[in-house]
Amino acid sequence: MGVIGSGTMGFGIGFYFAIHGYNTVIFDVSEDHLNLAKEKFNTYYDLFEKAQFPLQLSKQNAFKLIEWTTTLDSFKETDLIIESVIEQIEVKQNVFAKLDTIVKSDAILASNTSSLKLSEITENVSRMKNRVILTHFFNPAQIVPLVELLQLPNTDHGVLEKVHALFESIGKTPIRVYKEVAGLVANRIQVALAREAISLLEDGVVTKEDLEKTIFDGPGFRYATSGLLKIMDFGGLDIWDKVLGNLQGEIESSIRTFPVIKDLVNEQAYGVKTGKGFFEYPGKGFDELVLQRDEELLKHLLTTHY
Ligand SMILES: NC(=O)c1ccc[n+]([C@@H]2O[C@H](COP(=O)([O-])OP(=O)(O)OC[C@H]3O[C@@H](n4cnc5c(N)ncnc54)[C@H](O)[C@@H]3O)[C@@H](O)[C@H]2O)c1
Question: Last residue of some domain: 177, 204, 237?
Fold first, then answer.
């Protein structure tokens, strides 16, 4: 396996492959970046072990499977390479153009982009143009099961299926996205939810504390056991038909910025990373809070999937 970029997502993807026994090459632009990812390997292996995640390899043996590199030539022998560099089209295009000349002809090239078009990212790819797909992981990639997969019209038959089967075999939940739409499926749904939630908050319909409780102990509580369509089946489609008809005209549908968010951004209250967003996070640093969140997510993963 290969991962380009050892940041938040690239680290998570590489870590997950390695603990599942795959030789994994992880690239970044400097040794400093790679050293940070190596430290994270240690931290997350311990976290997985403490949570009793079914680990097949010792920490040393999993770590040994990773080649940390600052040279793209290391990807000559890799079967699947997932690009997970910063979300900038030119940077990604450049990475793909270089990989196009380096990788073996039966390799698969994937991008983990959240918002850019795969067809544009790979427009300079020629030799490997039939072996390109999108694999969109969710943060933290080493824990959240979902991976959205998309192929292009000229992607060779079987490429996406091979990756789908691989991901299933290591406990991920791959889904197929059949059209190249911005935001794919999950992020479009998240944005629709956020638009309505923030609009209710701005209109003073609910406090931020109660909005959290609403999602956590209402829809979110049910989503922990089933998807939306089964919830609708249980509720009755006759009822949902009426509810959709009655409420669609009432909910937020404008395309606009939300002052409640813009104001926080303007005062540099970006959320956990600055210690203040909608809520305050005193006393603990970003890394500590992320680890705490990931411990909770791991517990949830093990309860629901193992
Ligand atoms: N963070 C998320 O929640 C999330 C979720 C899904 C997908 N994504 C996507 O994953 C990709 C990576 O996001 P991230 O959050 O890991 O970002 P990040 O900033 O944590 O990591 C990006 C990494 O890319 C490296 N990099 C920069 N320029 C490079 C180059 N020219 N060649 C190779 N590596 C280079 C950086 O050194 C850094 O380690 C983006 O496309 C993003 O949209 C992010």
Answer: 177
What is the distance between the alpha carbons of residues 306 and 304, in angstroms, rounded to a whole number?
6
Q: Does 137 share its domain with 203?
A: no
Domain match, 26 and 84 both: yes
Q: Which residues contact 293 (CB under 8 A, 6 or more apart)?
A: none
Q: What type of residue sits at position 291?
A: L
| CATH for 20 | 3.40.50.720
Q: Is 150 exposed, middle or buried (0-12, 13-18, 19+ CB in 10 A)?
A: buried
CA of 175 to the centre of ligand 1 (A): 22
Which of 9, 172, 287 to mutate to test ligand 1, by most ligand atoms within 8 A of the CB atom? 9
**How many angstroms is it from 28 CA to the middle of ligand 1?**
10
Residues 72 and 105 in one domain: yes
Taking a C-beta distance cutoff of 8 angstroms, is the pair 9, 40 a contact? no
The pLDDT tens digits for 194-228 are 999 999 999 999 999 999 999 999 999 999 999 99
Residues with CB under 6 A from ligand 1: 4-10, 28-29, 33, 84-87, 91, 95, 112-114, 136-137, 139
The model's pLDDT over 36-77, given as tens digits with 9 standing for 90+, comes to 999 999 999 999 999 999 999 999 999 999 999 999 999 999
Which CATH number is 198's domain given? 1.10.1040.10
| pTM, to two decimals | 0.96
Sign, CA dihedral 37-43-46-47, equals negative
**Ligand 1 atom with least separation from CA of 115:** 43
- Supply the DSSP string of 14-25, one letter for each residue: HHHHHHTT--EE
In the chain, the number of structural domains is 2
Q: Final residue of a domain: which of 131, 150, 177?
A: 177
* Structural domain for 14, as ranges: 2-177
